[in-house]
Specification:
Number of domains: 1
Radius of gyration: 14 Å
Order of helices and strands: EEEEEEEEHEEE
Strand content: 35-45%
Number of strands: 11
Structural class: mainly beta
CATH class: Mainly Beta
Shape: globular
Strand order of the largest sheet: 2-3-4-9
CATH superfamily: Rieske [2Fe-2S] iron-sulphur domain
CATH topology: Rieske Iron-sulfur Protein
Largest sheet: 4 strands, antiparallel
Length: about 120
């Protein structure tokens, strides 16, 4: 079991918003979707773009750089990078497709806490 670290206040994020936060040396993505908070690693595993600059639809975040998509509910990859003019096999060879590491989140006394291993 990890340590719970405060990363935001409950009112810091509006529904459907994304925010980059830091906790115990980790850069994380914090999101509010469906009235719940979600936390995941903050950089896209494809080429390291900040996911906080991406787009959130439901619990799926889209990377602003190449369009990779990840479900913040469980970290699974929904779609890997879409590189214009580059064959899918080459795009996958650049970086092996993988999901995001996610972190448990809870709200206590108005504080958003992320569990860091």
């Amino acid at each position: 079991m990890g340590r719970s670290v405060e990363v935001a206040k409950e009112g810091d994020l509006a529904e459907g918003s994304l925010k980059q936060v830091s906790a115990e040396g980790h850069t994380l993505l914090l999101a509010m979707a469906g009235g719940r908070f979600y936390a995941a690693e903050g950089q896209c595993p494809h080429m390291g773009a900040s996911l906080a600059s991406g787009r959130l639809e439901g619990t799926v975040v889209t990377c602003p750089r190449h369009g990779s998509q990840f479900d913040l509910a469980d970290g699974r990859m929904v779609r890997w990078a879409q590189l214009p003019g580059v064959a899918s096999a080459i795009s996958k060879a650049i970086r092996k497709p993988r999901g995001l590491k996610t972190y448990p989140v809870k709200v206590e006394a108005g504080k958003v806490l992320v569990e860091i291993p």
